[in-house]
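Hi support team,

I submitted a single chain yesterday and got back a structure, but I'm not sure I'm reading the token output correctly. Could someone confirm the output below corresponds to the sequence I sent? I've pasted both exactly as they appear in my results page.

Thanks,
R.
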Amino acid sequence: MKKIFFLVIAILCSFRSFSQSPSVVSFERQIAISTVLDLTKSSNGTLYTFSTVANFDNGIVRDFDIIVKSNKPWNLTVTASSAQFTSGSPTLMPVSVINIKRSTESNYSTAPYVISGSRGKYTYTFNMRANPGYNYEPGTYGNVDINFVLEPQSP
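Hi R., thanks for writing in. Yes, this is the structure output for that exact sequence:
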């Protein structure tokens, strides 16, 4: 009986030693990330109408948001497409009557205006002020674009 018991134990142990090991299959995965530089702007109107003494004394300020999304360090440059506004008037108006600043800054600047940032999503509120004063004849002055250019920082 002892021999049969040991024989059964030996047979059961041999089944266990012949059991299969687990089968493993691996899949390599990669992630390819392209450069993202995205810029959006909320609308703030394009016409500054000067019709009151307060407008002429203080200028007119328009607020708008700029949203930057980037996975690289970046520079945002604000420029004007021309040095002067055009009109039917013989008096030329320089684009420097338009000033810009971030709402967190105290002083206005003229173009070119540059801010820099790192990777991430940023929302900036800007104030753009037109302040020609009393120096220009009545009329509509135009044909100047204010450009916001988002570029990666140089390495």
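A quick pointer for reading it: Residues 2-17 form the longest helix (16 residues). Let us know if anything else looks off.

Best,
Support desk
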